[in-house]
């Protein structure tokens, strides 16, 4: 079938596309990922999951992949060399304006697919604004929303494995093993676990539910800026996580495509 990537279409092809097509906006980050993984982990993982998703999405479901938004909101990592970041307000404006262009092209169904935790709070205001002004259906889903089935990876404190731990290291071993510095892999315990045992209501907003959170930097959680046991990682686990995330994303796209009652 023809390409499903927005940037590979001509203006003529774009005008002829089925207007029920679901446009997928990949959002990621470029930031430190401990001593063993590259800065582009989130972007590379997003790219790999979307490629795998396109292999399982039925041909009958029209989808277009918008240009990847590699740089996101990474203020919590700015003290580490190489991290790139935009301010939250600028990202909201930028991604809203980008999706206005999707509407001008005649499309009203969007899935924002995200692979960086620091971006998560930005999507709801974007989705509501575009719905109010254009009646667009903008859904959003993060890689972590797919969860980690216990038959793939079952570790103590897995909920605190949020950055360059077993999950992301495994996925990178599957997608880009050439970029994994295996001699630097170690267990990176998260101080967030200690916060939850020390405080009654205050938490870092990861791994569990607390009545109050706070604005943390990556160094507050671990001196290496990573959280999770990367020694438990393997390429096999990573490939299974990619496949699981790809299947989940494909189903999200199918749901949005079929949500005719939400698109006028």
TrEMBL record:
GO biological process: riboflavin biosynthetic process
InterPro entries per UniProt: Creatininase-like_sf, Creatininase/forma_Hydrolase
Protein family according to the UniProt entry: Belongs to the creatininase superfamily.
Domain of life according to the entry: Bacteria
Gene3D superfamilies: Creatininase
GO MF assignments: hydrolase activity, acting on carbon-nitrogen (but not peptide) bonds, in linear amides; metal ion binding
Keywords from the named record: Hydrolase, Metal-binding, Zinc
Key word Secreted present: no
Cofactor(s) annotated in UniProt: Zn(2+)
Record protein name field: Creatinine amidohydrolase
